[in-house]
Write a sequence for this structure.
């Protein structure tokens, strides 16, 4: 199967010492070789922030 499950975690919440929001998603291993970065909503900060893939 070329798709794998990934976890996206907020990067801005760590800097502000607040709880980080996490999202689950999938990516195609064959087409996307680098880590995913998406803008998602963080309910603790009440705004859209950058979420990066973690291992």
């Amino acid at each position: 199967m070329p798709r794998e499950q990934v976890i996206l975690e907020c990067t801005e919440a760590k800097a502000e010492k607040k709880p980080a929001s996490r999202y689950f998603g999938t990516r195609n291993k064959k087409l996307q070789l680098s880590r995913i970065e998406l803008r998602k909503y963080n309910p603790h900060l009440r705004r859209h922030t950058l979420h990066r893939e973690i291992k």
Observations:
- The mean pLDDT is 94.
